[in-house]
Known about the structure:
By secondary structure, this protein is α+β, with helices and mostly antiparallel strands. The chain has two domains: 1-36; 41-147, Immunoglobulin-like. Helices cover 21% and strands 47% of the residues. It has one helix at residues 2-33; strands at 41-47, 59-61, 66-75, 80-88, 91-101, 106-113, 119-130, 138-147. The strands form two sheets. The protein has a five-stranded mixed beta sheet with strand order 2-8-7-4-5, with no helix packed on it. It has a three-stranded antiparallel beta sheet with strand order 1-3-6, with no helix packed on it. It is rod-shaped and about 105 Å long.
Amino acid sequence: MIKNSISRIDKVVSLFLGLAILVTIGLIVYLTVTPKAGDKFTEFYILGFGGKAEGYPKELTLGEKAKVIVGIVNHEYQNLSYRLEIAINGVSNKTVNSIVLAHKEKWENEVSFIPTKVGEKQKVEFLLYRTGQEEPCRKLHLWINVRSN
């Protein structure tokens, strides 16, 4: 009787261990085959005329065209369409529509804006929207002083 109960316990333990090994192998295969998605984000930056994080336009004359380089890199693991809006003191100045990027694709272009009012410490905002969204997903800004002609 003792021998019979030991063999029954051995069978249950063996079955449990066998199932645990199969589940572990299944999880290892699943984790190996399924790619791990990292953090999802959109990289958004502005550079000065020399392509560096300096040399931004600061002092302008009314009506003078200012130029910066705007960069967008999609790290969202899907194709996305973006819209870039430039506003000065909350007033829309320029819009760049239909910037379509695949995952890890980069868009970097020279973008210009023209101030329409004289004044000190005017806020130039660069607002990045995903198509279909009302609120910007990223915001950057510069401060400019604008003199009369």
